């Protein structure tokens, strides 16, 4: 897919733009800046809420973001779309999770808000999640290490929540949540490996693909000029929706099956290599992309 016209590029963050240690490769920064200088638009498209998009990411130079796995869309500093859980939905979820004894946190653009027992209740899940991401200090991590900006003691009955993540005590917790909250999107996540560590509750009928559709309508842009990059199952809808999909080498098998191109791992300059291969930037002498579908 040669970049003969300006493209709109959507980048997942964790495992795509940053590695599993949350390191941002210099090659990715350089590639994004060069691509934007060449007239392409770059948006991050992430499960993170805006409160988790820290200054180093914005300082790369971005045209905007899609957050909360599609519940929030921002372009050039303007809010294009923002859908949140209602106060009633949030209240019901908080009460149910508390009654069940599950640690959780609320993901809002204004911050992350922890349940009362989160520091203890989430410790095992935080360590397991970090171990799956390859962190060498996973066994001794604290919840504060994993969530340094978490807010404790804040109001939990809120109307500005994008989604709620909760620790899974068992798969039954997820199955029961699906039954209890059929007015919300129910999902799971947990890093490398098949067993889920966390459940999440979000706005129903929201995906990254839907958010991209909203952004394109706002921009008056053509879907034919879109490219998506991802590494996890939640990225599959946007890879399938966009004209061209790129899976990271560290991505899950379902993402690679959905992609048109599989590039190198995030730690091996995979983003920059794919940008070069697609003609978004000048070719890199070390570019070694793995192949096309």
Automatic annotation (TrEMBL):
The keyword Hydrolase applies. GO terms for cellular component: cytosol. Its EC number is 3.1.3.23. InterPro entries: Cof (IPR000150), HAD-like_sf (IPR036412), HAD-SF_hydro_IIB (IPR006379), HAD_sf (IPR023214). It comes from the Bacteria. Pfam families: Hydrolase_3. GO terms for molecular function: magnesium ion binding; sugar-phosphatase activity. SUPFAM superfamilies: HAD-like. Keywords: Hydrolase. This is Cof-like hydrolase. It comes from Bifidobacterium stellenboschense.
């Amino acid at each position: 897919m040669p970049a003969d016209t300006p493209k709109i590029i959507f980048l997942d963050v964790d495992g795509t733009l940053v590695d599993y240690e949350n390191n941002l490769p210099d090659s990715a920064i350089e590639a994004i800046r060069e691509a934007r200088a060449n007239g392409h638009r770059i948006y991050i498209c992430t499960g993170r809420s805006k409160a988790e998009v820290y200054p180093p990411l914005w300082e790369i130079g971005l045209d905007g973001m899609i957050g909360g796995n599609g519940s929030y869309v921002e372009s050039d500093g303007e809010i294009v779309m923002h859908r949140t859980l209602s106060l009633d939905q949030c209240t019901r979820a908080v009460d149910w999770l508390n009654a069940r004894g599950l640690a959780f946190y609320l993901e809002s653009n204004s911050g992350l808000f922890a349940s009362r027992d989160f520091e203890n209740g989430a410790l095992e899940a935080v360590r397991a999640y970090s171990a799956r991401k390859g962190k060498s200090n996973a066994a001794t991590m604290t919840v504060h290490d994993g969530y340094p900006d978490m807010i404790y003691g804040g109001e939990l009955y809120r109307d500005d929540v994008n989604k709620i993540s909760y620790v899974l005590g068992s798969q039954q917790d997820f199955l029961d949540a699906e039954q209890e909250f059929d007015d919300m999107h129910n999902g799971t996540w947990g890093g490398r490996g098949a067993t889920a560590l966390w459940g999440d509750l979000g706005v129903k009928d929201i995906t990254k693909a839907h958010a991209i559709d909203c952004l394109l309508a706002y921009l008056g842009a053509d879907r034919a000029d879109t490219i998506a990059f991802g590494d996890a199952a939640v990225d599959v809808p946007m890879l399938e929706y966009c004209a061209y999909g790129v899976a990271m080498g560290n991505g899950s098998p379902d993402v690679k099956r959905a992609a048109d191109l599989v590039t190198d791992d995030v730690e091996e300059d995979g983003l920059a290599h794919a940008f070069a291969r697609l003609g978004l930037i000048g070719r890199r002498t070390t570019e070694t992309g793995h192949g096309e579908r």
